[in-house]
Specification:
The complex is a heterodimer of chains A (about 325) and B (about 250). Chain A is an alpha/beta fold. Chain A folds into 2 domains: about 170 residues, HUPs (Rossmann fold), CATH 3.40.50; about 120 residues, Rossmann fold (3-Layer(aba) Sandwich), CATH 3.40.50. Chain A has 8 helices and 16 strands. In chain A, α3 packs across α4 and α5 packs parallel to α8. Chain A is elongated. The model of chain A has no long low-confidence stretch (mean pLDDT about 95). By secondary structure, chain B is of the alpha/beta class. Chain B has one domain: HUPs (Rossmann fold). Helix content of chain B is about 25%, strand content about 30%. Chain B has 6 helices and 13 strands. Chain B is globular. Classes of the chains: A alpha/beta (about 325), B alpha/beta (about 250). The interface between A and B is large, with 97 and 84 residues. β11 of chain A pairs antiparallel with β9 of chain B, so a sheet runs across the interface. The structure holds flavin-adenine dinucleotide (2 copies). The site of one flavin-adenine dinucleotide has 32 residues of chain B, from α1, β4, α3, β6 and α4.
Amino acid sequence: MSVLVYTENWDGVFKKLSFELVSYAAKVAEMMETSVTAVSIGDVADDELAKLGNYGAAKVVKVDGNTTLDNQVYTGIIAQLAEAEGAKVVVISHNNTGKALAPRLSVKLKAAVGAGLIALPSSTEPFTVSKKVFSGKAFANVVLKTDVKILTLAQNSFEVIEVGGTATVEASTATAGEAKTTVKDVQKQTGKILLNDAEIVVSGGRGLKSGDNWGIIEELAEVLGAATACSRPVSDEGWRPHEEHTGQTGKIIAPNLYFAAGISGAIQHMAGISSSKCIVAINNDADAPVFESSDYGIVGDALKVLPALTEAIKEAKNK
Amino acid sequence: MKIVVCLGNVPDTTTKVKFGDGTAFDKTGVQWIINPWDELALTRAMELKEDAGNPVSSVTVVTVGGKDAEPTMRKALAIGADDAIRVDTDARDAYAVAGQLAEAIKDKGFDIILTGIESSDYNGSMVGGMLAEMLDVPSVSAVSGLTISGSDVEITRDIDGGKEQVSVATPLVATVQKGIAKEARIAAMRGIMMARKKPLAVVPAAEVETLTDFVSFELPAPKPPCKMVDADNVAELVDLLQNEAKVL
Ligand SMILES: Cc1cc2nc3c(=O)[nH]c(=O)nc-3n(C[C@H](O)[C@H](O)[C@H](O)COP(=O)(O)OP(=O)(O)OC[C@H]3O[C@@H](n4cnc5c(N)ncnc54)[C@H](O)[C@@H]3O)c2cc1C
Ligand SMILES: Cc1cc2nc3c(=O)[nH]c(=O)nc-3n(C[C@H](O)[C@H](O)[C@H](O)COP(=O)(O)OP(=O)(O)OC[C@H]3O[C@@H](n4cnc5c(N)ncnc54)[C@H](O)[C@@H]3O)c2cc1C
């Protein structure tokens, strides 16, 4: 028996997301009195793999090569390893990759999925998880009825816990099927903090009046080491790229701090950001609904408040 | 090529959700809509069909749901789908929905199967991938662009930190998201008239099981009131974020 965790890598390197997942898997393993085996597919150096031990993985099984994400190939490999390890629980991220692999794995292993979780299971007998439903308007308690379970964990929703262990690294004997996905081109965002990874996000809405005004959003993001985001109309207007749109039909994120400037706080927008630990709203309308779901608010012109805030943060940092 | 769009019938996104005794979603007074991503998928399917450069012969929509899903399906027909299939059952989890969809669409020669990345009611993000595995066909997730090139489909998918252009042979399942179409289409009067005469087949449910039980529902705890800071005193906000919220 074991808890299996699939740890994705980015050009051979793990990131905070991977450590959150292993930390989560370690806590689930503790509840089930078993240990964690991490699975890594692609070319990752052994010393990078061994790092996963620090977060609670007892063993890392590596499958070299296969650097192109082909959902069938990856599912086949993870399923073989889950069976070989006698895994009772498989933990995967609820990011794009996880959303692609978990459902295929569910069918292959006949394993119920607890999808997009933000906390540990509330019980293992029966195996019960709490999941967000209706885009965060409610939570459901869901019993996973199968012998093997899959849990997909929402990013930034579980803390990284260092336990100081070391993991043994083994090469796997799993065989990969034939890939049917051919990657023709890749465009990577470089030098920018990714919205999904960001601890702080500065977001602007239609209240900023024009894409030309985004300099003040970017300057605040710069001093905070934050990522930038926007509301849907802003990306629909082409003021910002669609990857920056947060909300029910855009990205769902959970940073520590989210600034909503010139955003009215429509329910569909808040659905994407309500899991943020702290929300700050800046709006010139004191009755804007965004204040109802924010922690801190400033009534004022975003075009003036944002630059002032940038200066105040610079000052505070220099102290 | 034949395209099928899997269409969820979901409560309007502004619905105030209620759960009666806490064990089931209370549907009274709820307005129903096409799941937003599925609407975008349908829009893209229509664009592909209308572009004479593509060999798309038909666009079908399929829904697993009771008779109350039919107005939403008629909306899809009014937007332009050629025909509709309703699998007559209230499914209770993603695995069961995927199982019903697989039974309803297998052996019908669909080349491109489109699903949305998430259903706005139960937020699973699972049906598309499950369906692909059940049908044993390739799947591509987080699709924000899709064109046809011969018997292949050229796809833009979002990866963490970028985009990839991938090529996959049909048949396949593409799970679509924002970007796949610019804006969802709205049905025109003519479409609404025509939709009444388009075929909507009702097929009986297959024997499929559920893997999960949704046992109870809870509303999140209300948020404490927002703390207001004067616009002329942003330094106070910085102080609160540093020392009270401890997020800076
Ligand atoms: C099915 C569906 C899905 C949707 N999904 C999403 C989604 O994922 N994400 C999303 O964002 N939206 C989504 N929407 C749209 C959503 O309903 C709102 O229309 C949208 O969020 C509004 O964007 P906004 O707040 O930028 O603009 P507005 O609602 O126009 O608000 C602008 C705000 O700026 C304020 N303002 C004006 N000038 C200033 C100034 N100088 N300084 C400060 N404040 C100022 C105004 O008081 C106002 O509150 C969806 C809608 C539907 C129907
Ligand atoms: C407790 C509970 C009660 C339910 N009650 C009902 C009910 O009374 N009546 C009813 O009809 N359904 C009911 N359902 C089914 C529900 O509406 C969803 O269809 C199902 O749960 C899948 O949701 P998901 O979040 O896992 O889908 P996701 O995996 O997030 O959906 C992704 C995509 O799959 C496709 N898809 C999802 N659902 C359907 C569907 N039903 N038909 C066609 N394509 C679909 C869409 O393309 C969608 O974009 C219930 C589900 C639960 C869990």
